[in-house]
Amino acid sequence: MYTWKSYYIVQTDYQHWANETLFSALDHLHPDAIGSDQGLLFGSIHHTLDHMVALGSVWLARLKGEHLEIDFKSIHHGEWRDLKNALRREARRLQAFLEAQPAEFFDQQITFIGPEGKAHTLWVRDALSHLFTEFAHYRGQATAAATRLGAPHPEMGFAGYRREMERLLNETQADQPSAAMG
Fold it and tell me: Which of 49, 53, 66, 82 could cysteine-pair with 61, CB 3.0–4.6 Å?
């Protein structure tokens, strides 16, 4: 049975996959290019991805009913390798949190204090949809800058993720010894 919980767990896994796909393209660039000002909202590709880590941390705290203040103007992970690992960890932390929640959690509302100091209320589903579309937005900015700098254009669409997961599942099933052979 397909539930909101299963939907958002798959969406979280997709975020991880899309990040890895983007990293593969970005790894073709010199670290100086990744850190250079490209006219993005956060200047560089590096700061844009660093913002994604911070954004994920803030929204995970909100989903937990906690408040986390982060300076979005500062870079928190200065080394490229550290930044990639932080983004990987953040995606998996969110996935583990969502997997641990009961199905009813996704039908609840959360209340949080926004950056302007006002209280806001959102359905959990809307908060997660917002977070994931923000991630796609920032990955898109990073991709546009990276391709201008000479990186290959990464295919990060959800349909590509589904095809890749299906291929991996088929390979795994093909590698399994047949029960009849045992």
Answer: 66
